User: Which sequence fits this backbone?
């Protein structure tokens, strides 16, 4: 079920601000692609455009194409709601639904889409929580509110929630930036497991993390405030970190800016 | 001896902290006292009103008939009778008012926060809600009279009262919905969208439940507010001393109208009934405030 | 209905796009002049979303229409009565509406009583409200500030008919000696001179204004509390670091910061006072003698005149006279409230 993504000539805008200029890249199926770059370089904006979350912000605009296994998610007649059901997302800050129990959080996507079969929901709850390495920790308190979990557990709950709808692609927007090192490690291990089944795109500020978890890395940069972010280069992670072809990449990776 | 040497050895110096000048001290204390006094000044009328109500209104209330009977057939000098007819009217009128004002107001709040943000219509609506919240209740009554009774030709009724109360309750509901939706973090909406949930379902199933506790509390407080309104009632419905369950037909009592009307019976028994009704009204409002507090605790988002 | 649409359409989007035509062409270096597809213009909108959005927008528009309708209906109903009016509506003090054939009504006396009682109430309530708000935000211990604020808010929970009873039956007798003293000793000031009822009657603007002051106190205090609490702590700490006393801090930072918000709140209170009905209907005694422009006058405000006339509401022309008075009240509260919001919204700007 994992699918590849081809981004072609993507230009993203917030009102008149040109946030991202002319990005084209390929994301391979069943692999982890990391987006790195300094703050404001547009990497999160690109990520959000991959499941049409960019357009949720009032005044935002998208030009270009994003192809999911060859099919443009921005084609006329494509329902953004369906795109998001196929391409899931995990956010920087864990955001479980505060009014729902752990179980309901996991199956929220399915329940809100009208799934009522309790057996099926229970099955999916367990499978998704196991998939997110959270089952053992919460199986005795599935009916407790999700807000009562620790930060790391909440983030894994959000991952479980995202994979419960069985997406083809999983987008992660700095999923560990608010977590302690131990929880971060748990999430990174999880990413390594998830890539067997999913295509994963992860935005991270942490270069070690990108080096640890990703197969290919894309480096974004921005010339200055008010300038659009651009893709500098993309390549196999080992190559980007050891022998980047661009000077800016090398400077960023060696910690000279950013 | 010892002090002497100490005095000699210590260099001449000023104390570490210079005392405030007397004028500054006096002004500071005077200001503190005045501000505290202002608070006391506000508490005095509140206590005075409450004590008056309890002292004069408690006796009628202790009579068991008070809660089960009406004023029907009472002569000006008859003690006794009960407030049941007015309770029925007040509860029916405010309930029907809520049935109209709550969905409408919540809907306006949803428009302002979820759909209209910063649009011209939203700005105009916000302004009009402000104006509505400052609308004198008597004008609300006159408007319903001009619309419902003069233009549409209906008779005065409890329902006309409910309609006028809607005008007064609507801004309260809109405000509270707006405030409560505003504090729902955008992350929750995004989390829901990212799961492939349509916007309307996100609002109904994620955003509204998260802010339910606050909205509910605000609505109930709004109910308490319109419950004490008297002015539109004078125009829109006749007073009845008997029990009338029908909102759409005939004169109908309510607590504030009963207080107002009983004042005109200038006998000891009339005063007795008036203060009894007044205390009942205030107790009902307090009870509803209490319920609002309890509900907000009950529906508050739990983390454990 | 949308539920079923959702589950049907939950299939992978491979079925409903024209994608295969657009195969990847590899990176293009310059930005395309015409984007490959028009962005966002042919957005798919779900039925549920469309219905929900329309409903919400319609209810927003309804509120706007409502205010317009209030003005319009009052105007339509007032016009015939104004045509039939035998007195000057703006300049006459008469109020003879019993005979629809010979209507004679004017608002000048109503305006005087309304403005006098509201302004008197404002003069009393403003300093007290400012004091309470400063006390609650700057002086009261944190633990007590909340319950204290709640106590002040309780003042707003008491129905106006009860304030009326209290004012007329309990407060007025207590105020009588004060009124008489003011009238005898300060009577040379016109505003404390003899009114159209004896100073010791109690049912005059003096009592009404004091009761109104109590009623608008929580409104002004509420707004003032909010703006004073928003004083940037950097400003307060700056003043404290210069060795200012609490009072000097308040005078130099909190008060200048919150002043215009406080004035806006007072305008809201004024709007409330102008429209208050039942408390004044109960307190003020009605008299046919014109006002002497003293706070010991009795009479009726716009609102209380309408309430008093409710028994006469059986002829459209008669009602029209009252509606005309209501229209004036509506327009004036509209103006006062709009002014209040304007002051309030422009107060925070540039300071925070």
Assistant:
């Amino acid at each position: 079920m994992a699918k590849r993504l081809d981004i072609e000539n993507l230009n993203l805008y917030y009102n008149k601000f040109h946030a991202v200029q002319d990005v084209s890249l390929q994301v391979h199926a069943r692999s982890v692609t990391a987006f790195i770059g300094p703050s404001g370089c547009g990497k999160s904006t690109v990520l959000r455009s991959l499941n049409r979350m960019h357009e949720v912000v009032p005044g935002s605009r998208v030009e270009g194409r994003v192809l999911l296994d060859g099919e443009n998610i921005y084609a006329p007649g494509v329902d953004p709601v369906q795109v998001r059901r196929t391409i899931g997302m995990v956010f920087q800050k864990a955001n479980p639904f505060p009014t729902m129990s752990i179980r309901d959080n996991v199956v929220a996507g399915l329940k809100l889409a009208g799934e009522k079969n309790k057996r099926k929901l229970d099955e999916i709850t367990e499978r998704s929580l196991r998939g997110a390495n959270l089952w053992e920790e919460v199986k005795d308190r599935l009916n407790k509110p999700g807000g009562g979990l620790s930060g790391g557990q909440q983030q894994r709950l959000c991952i479980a929630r995202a994979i419960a709808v069985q997406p083809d692609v999983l987008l992660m927007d700095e999923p560990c930036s608010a977590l302690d090192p131990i929880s971060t490690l748990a999430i990174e291990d999880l990413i390594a497991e998830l890539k067997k089944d999913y295509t994963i795109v992860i935005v991270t500020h942490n270069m070690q993390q990108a080096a640890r978890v990703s197969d290919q890395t894309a480096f974004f940069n921005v010339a200055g405030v008010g300038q659009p972010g651009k893709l500098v280069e993309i390549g196999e992670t080992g190559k980007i970190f050891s022998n980047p072809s661009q000077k800016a990449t090398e400077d960023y990776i060696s910690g000279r800016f950013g | 001896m010892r002090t002497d040497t100490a005095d000699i050895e210590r260099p001449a110096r000023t104390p570490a902290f210079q005392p405030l000048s007397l004028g500054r001290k006096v002004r500071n204390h005077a200001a503190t006292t005045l501000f505290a006094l202002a608070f006391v000044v506000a508490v005095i009328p509140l206590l005075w009103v409450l004590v008056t109500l309890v002292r004069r209104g408690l006796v009628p209330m202790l009579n068991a008939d008070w809660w089960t009977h009406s004023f029907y057939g009472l002569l000006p000098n008859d003690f006794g009778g009960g407030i049941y007819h007015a309770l029925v009217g007040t509860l029916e009128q405010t309930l029907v008012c809520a049935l109209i004002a709550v969905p409408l107001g919540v809907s306006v709040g949803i428009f302002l926060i979820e759909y209209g943000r910063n649009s011209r219509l939203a700005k105009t609506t916000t302004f009009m809600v402000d104006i509505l919240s400052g609308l004198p209740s008597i004008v609300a009554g006159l408007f319903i009279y001009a619309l419902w009774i003069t233009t549409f030709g209906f008779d005065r009724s409890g329902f006309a009262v409910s309609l006028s109360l809607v005008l007064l309750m609507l801004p309260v509901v809109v405000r509270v919905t707006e405030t409560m939706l505003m504090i729902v973090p955008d992350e929750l909406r995004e989390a829901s969208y990212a799961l492939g949930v349509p916007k309307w379902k996100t609002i109904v199933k994620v955003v509204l439940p998260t802010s339910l506790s606050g909205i509910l509390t605000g609505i109930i407080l709004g109910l308490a507010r319109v419950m004490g309104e008297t002015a539109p009632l004078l125009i829109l419905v006749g007073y009845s001393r008997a029990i009338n369950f029908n909102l759409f037909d005939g004169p109908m009592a309510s607590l504030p109208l009963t207080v107002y009307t009983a004042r005109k019976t200038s006998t000891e028994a009339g005063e007795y009934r008036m203060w009894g009704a007044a205390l009942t009204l205030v107790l009902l409002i307090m009870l509803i405030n209490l319920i609002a507090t309890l509900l907000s605790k009950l529906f508050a988002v739990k983390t454990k | 209905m949308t539920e079923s649409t959702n589950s049907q359409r939950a299939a992978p989007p491979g079925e409903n796009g024209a994608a295969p035509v657009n195969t990847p062409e590899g990176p293009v270096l310059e930005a395309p002049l015409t984007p490959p597809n028009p962005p966002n213009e042919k957005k798919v909108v779900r039925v549920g979303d469309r219905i929900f959005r329309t409903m919400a927008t319609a209810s927003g528009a309804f509120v706007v229409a409502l205010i317009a309708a209030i003005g319009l209906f009052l105007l339509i109903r007032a016009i015939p009565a104004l045509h039939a009016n035998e007195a000057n509506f703006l300049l006459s003090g008469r109020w003879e509406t019993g005979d629809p054939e010979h209507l004679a009504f004017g608002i000048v006396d109503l305006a005087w009583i309304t403005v006098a009682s509201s302004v008197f109430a404002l003069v009393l309530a403003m300093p007290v409200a400012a004091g309470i708000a400063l006390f609650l935000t700057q002086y009261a211990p944190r633990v007590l500030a909340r319950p204290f604020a709640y106590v002040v808010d309780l003042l707003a929970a008491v129905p106006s008919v009860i304030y009326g009873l209290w004012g007329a039956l309990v407060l007025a007798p207590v105020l009588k000696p004060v009124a008489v003293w003011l009238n005898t000793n300060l009577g040379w000031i016109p505003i404390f001179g003899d009114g159209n009822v004896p100073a010791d009657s109690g049912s005059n603007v003096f009592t009404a204004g004091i009761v109104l002051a109590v009623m608008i106190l929580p409104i002004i205090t509420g707004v003032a509390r909010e703006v004073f609490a928003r004083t940037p702590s950097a400003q307060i700490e700056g003043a404290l670091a210069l060795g200012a006393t609490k009072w000097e801090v308040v005078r130099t930072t909190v008060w200048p910061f919150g002043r215009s918000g406080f004035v806006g709140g007072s305008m809201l209170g004024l709007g409330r006072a102008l429209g208050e009905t039942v408390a004044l209907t109960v307190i003020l005694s009605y008299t046919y003698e014109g006002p002497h422009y003293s706070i010991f006058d009795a009479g009726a405000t716009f609102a209380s005149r309408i309430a008093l006339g409710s028994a006469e509401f059986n002829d459209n022309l008669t009602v029209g006279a009252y509606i005309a008075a209501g229209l004036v009240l509506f327009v004036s509260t509209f103006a006062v409230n709009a002014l209040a919001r304007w002051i309030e919204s422009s107060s925070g700007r540039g300071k925070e």
Q: What stands out?
A: Chain A has one domain: 5-234. Chain A has a mean pLDDT of 91. The longest strand of chain A covers residues 17-27.
